[in-house]
Design goal:
The complex is a heterodimer of chains A (about 160) and B (about 550). In chain A, about 30% of the residues lie in helices and about 45% in strands. Chain A is an alpha+beta fold and about 160 residues long. Chain A folds into 2 domains: about 80 residues, ACT domain (Alpha-Beta Plaits); about 70 residues, Alpha-Beta Plaits, CATH 3.30.70. Chain B is of the alpha/beta class and about 550 residues long. Chain B has 23 helices and 20 strands. The longest helix of chain B is centred in the N-terminal third of the chain and has 15 residues. Chain B is globular and about 70 Å long. Chain B starts with a strand and ends in a 24-residue tail after the last strand. Classes of the chains: A alpha+beta (about 160), B alpha/beta (about 550). The interface between A and B is medium-sized, with 21 and 21 residues.
Chain lengths: ~160, ~550
């Protein structure tokens, strides 16, 4: 089962490495990492997406808290959480496909970033599952590049 | 204004550390030079950086205080990794200062450059790369604070060589505050009452005491509680010395090579109080059947070890000394007479294999006998340092430990080559009792060069080589589980260890016959200064009892 964990860390050299290292060294899954400065200067908020049973998640939470520069660990309750992710996509479109592609981008509340005779680049924001679905849909085109940021999350 | 190196020495002095273990190199020349400007801190120069780390580890284990290592960049730092990992697994407080290449060339694959922060991250509690000399006072203060508080552990501080000579006006912080790094809270009385509530209903309780008791110095609290409540105690390898082996409530060591009665008690218990311990696989065997029918109360300073391996009924986070002291206050005598009697009768029916009176066919010495004689001669009053393998288990079983922090051994990582350098570290704590370093003929050769350090500082260590001409523990597994196929484990031709000792300027003695053992030990104990003793052992001795890896109490093998 998927879990989102939000941690606040001192913006010190090596802290993010220690967080990621914890997952690799203990054999836990790390599906995505999204990091950047949070509400207080010098404090970064990292959103981690992982999966595992309850026992595993509890252990991850404790081990994260044991990292010296991690000062808050929150296991986010999906019903009380706002989360979003950004996906950038570049697809190949010829004249016949263009209208269909633009319709899809619009239907997904996406934003067109670049557009020419052969290519269409756009961004879509939303939940991880929305982006998973969108990726599937756009497979009817030739996807040239696709990049996702990982989910960022805050309390509702 | 002060130089970086002055700040480093000041940080060390502020901790009350009087000895630093190290090895010089290009990126710590300024720091080594600084030692010549003062007299308070002695620099102990060993012969290999791994040994510096083990020596510091041995010092910390024997004294209960933080120790310090100084090595150079690159290979100097990487050579300490085994020593750091050894300390990390057993929660030993150490600060390792590594020189680093000059700040402007970091990341350019400069000569003797290694990404020390990256390499040591998985084996340290925390680590730092210092980027400005102005950060040094704070970083070093934090490093010592982190190493010694909570669950202790090694902390690496990587200091580029150019910063060592830079000047700074930065002061040491008056108070250390690390947001998010929380010290263990005093355990709430309601938690202790809940624990006692469970314990008081038990009819077959057992205390399972680990290395945390040695680390927090909680032996008196442990004995007081156990004695007042009538609860027998079994210890882990790292918990040895916290309860005198001869104590009426002591069941000895538990686990893979634990005593029959200790494992019997754990298997029969209806409640187990786990103290300062982490349910290591060498203790639990098959986790599913370990403590299957017992309720578990677990006190440990590290929340992440509670429920890690085994779900417990009550987990309490806090200093085990605090927990035991509170438990000791509220506990009352339990009616465990018949339980204790049952265990006593088990001890009588299932004693340790005893080879005192048995002449072996090969006419070689039994390791149990040799260790037993050391135990008898010292009365258990010794600092014993063991290496890893068969002899380590023979020491654990047949040396009757009496005192806190008296068995220093690499429990978690199982590091061969640990004993001699760790004994060197222990020697600098100036114990009033003899220091005995046990190694097998395999492990001894892993840090044999430290005989030079023993000589240089004239350390009064009894250096015992248990020579059975093979890697006994691996060979034992090969004999039991791999059809006697001795791949890589036989050393038919060992070097002449006495000549090697002589080459290092040390006295040595070789003992091959049983009647020579006791007199030789007496002589060794009376000897002032270092002595190498080589015991020629029965090559096929096996360590028993044994519960094979991943098995349970019913699979216990009592003897040959």
């Amino acid at each position: 089962m998927k879990h989102l964990i939000s941690i606040q860390v001192n913006d010190q050299f090596g802290t993010l490495s220690r967080v990621v290292e914890l997952f690799t060294s203990r054999g836990f899954n790390l599906d995505s990492v999204c990091t950047g400065e949070g509400e207080a200067p010098g404090i970064h908020r990292i959103t981690l997406a992982t999966n595992g049973d309850d026992k595993k998640i509890k252990q991850i939470l404790k081990l994260l808290k044991n990292i010296v520069y991690v000062y808050k660990v929150t296991h986010l309750d999906p019903s009380q959480t706002l989360s979003a992710e950004l996906m950038l996509v570049k697809i190949q479109v010829d004249a016949d496909q263009r209208v269909r592609a633009l319709e899809l981008v619009q239907a997904l509340s996406g934003e067109v970033l670049e557009f020419n005779a052969e290519l269409l680049s756009f961004q879509i924001v939303g939940s991880a599952s929305k982006l998973d679905g969108a990726t599937e849909i756009f497979r009817e085109f030739t996807i040239l590049e696709l990049a996702r940021t990982g989910e960022a999350a805050i309390h509702m | 204004m002060k130089k970086g190196t002055e700040i480093i020495l000041e940080a060390i002095k502020r901790q009350g550390v009087k000895e630093v273990f190290g090895y010089p190199g290009g990126c710590v020349i300024p720091l080594f030079d600084e030692f010549l400007n003062q007299q308070e801190v002695q620099l102990i120069r060993v012969c290999h950086e791994q040994a510096a780390a083990h020596a510091a580890d041995g010092f910390a284990r024997a004294s209960g205080k933080c120790s310090v290592v100084i090595v150079t960049s690159g290979p100097g730092a990487t050579n300490t990794i085994t020593g750091i990992a050894t300390a990390a697994m057993d929660s030993i407080p150490m600060v390792i200062i590594t020189g680093q290449v000059r700040t402007p060339v970091i990341g350019t694959d400069a000569f003797q450059e290694t990404n020390v922060i990256g390499v040591t991250r998985p084996v340290t509690k925390h680590n730092y790369l210092v980027k400005s000399v102005d950060d040094l006072p704070e970083v070093l203060s934090e490093a010592f604070y982190i190493a010694t508080t909570g669950r202790p552990g090694p902390v690496v501080v990587d200091i580029p060589v150019d910063l060592q000579t830079h000047q700074t006006a930065a002061q040491f912080p008056e108070k250390i505050e690390i947001p998010g790094y929380e010290l263990p809270q005093v355990i709430g009385p309601e938690r202790i009452e809940a624990a006692w509530g469970m314990i008081s209903h038990a009819s077959r309780p057992v205390i399972y005491a680990g290395g945390g008791i040695n680390l927090s110095g909680a032996n008196e609290e442990l004995l007081h509680f156990a004695h007042k409540a009538n609860i027998p105690i079994t210890t882990t390898l790292l918990g040895q010395g916290t309860v005198p082996a001869a104590h009426e409530l002591s069941l000895g060591m538990l686990g893979m090579h634990g005593e029959y009665t200790a494992n019997y008690a754990m298997n029969r218990a209806d409640l187990v109080i786990a103290l300062g311990t982490r349910f290591d696989d060498r203790v639990t065997g098959k986790v599913e059947s370990f403590l299957e029918n017992a309720k578990i109360v677990h006190i440990d300073v590290d929340p992440s070890v509670i429920n890690k391996i085994k779900e417990v009924d009550l987990g309490i986070v806090g200093d085990v000394k605090d927990g035991l002291s509170q438990l000791g206050q509220i506990c009352e005598p339990l009616a465990t007479e018949s339980w204790l009697e049952e265990l006593k009768s088990m001890q009588t029916q299932h004693p340790l294999p005893n080879y005192d009176e048995v002449a072996t066919e090969t006419d070689r010495l039994r390791p149990e006998y040799v260790i037993g004689q050391f135990s008898k001669a010292t009365g258990g009053d010794a600092v014993v340092v063991s290496d890893v393998g068969q002899h380590q288990m023979f020491v654990a079983l047949h040396f009757k430990f009496k005192n806190l922090r008296s068995h220093l051994t690499s429990g978690g990582l199982g590091t061969m080559g640990f004993s001699l350098p760790a004994a060197i570290g222990a020697a600098f704590t100036e114990p009033t009792v003899p220091i005995i370093s046990f190694s097998g003929d395999g492990g001894f050769q892993m840090n044999i060069q430290e005989l030079a350090t023993v000589k240089a500082y004239n350390l009064p260590i009894i250096i015992v080589i248990m020579n059975n001409h093979n890697l006994g523990m691996v060979k034992q597994w090969q004999d039991l589980f791999w059809d006697h196929r001795h791949s890589g484990t036989i050393f038919p031709q060992s070097p002449d260890f006495l000549k090697i000792a002589e080459g290092y300027g040390l006295e040595g003695v070789r003992i091959s016959a049983k009647d020579e053992v006791a007199p030789a030990i007496q002589k060794a104990l009376a000897h002032k200064g270092p002595l190498v003793m080589e015991f020629m052992l029965e090559p096929d001795a096996m360590v028993y009892p044994m519960i094979p890896a991943g098995k349970e109490f019913s699979d216990l093998i009592e003897g040959e």
